[in-house]
Amino acid sequence: MTAQPTAEQLRAELAQLQQEHEAFRELARDRAIKGFHDGQWTAEALNDTLTDLGLQPYEPQLVSRFDVNFGFQVEARTGDEHDDHQLVHRLRDKDVADAMRAALSTAIAEHLPGTPLTVTEQETHPYIGYATVRWV
Residues with Cβ < 8 Å from 56, sequence gap 6 or more? Predict the structure, then answer.
């Protein structure tokens, strides 16, 4: 004769089944949304089906990406052409690119407060040319 499960065992089994059920519901919702993104559903049909299944309706969020190009000029007074070449190589370093990204992010936050803009990519090897070399 098998022993009857205890109340604690039944509660643990119920909790496990509820977790599995919720995971399945989320999977079904995610797959239906993927079908919408793949063009298999209209937004109205998707949300009607999700509602019929007792799932949260889908509210798409727009993500916009902008390519913003700009240039700036820096000047160095080294007195030595070799030092100038070293500066050009230094400007191409990853840590300098990271510092530029941080400065851009700070500028965006300070000058466009409340906007969701963030710097996501940045050219790590900017074009650097010599426009003018002069002795002063």
Answer: 29, 50
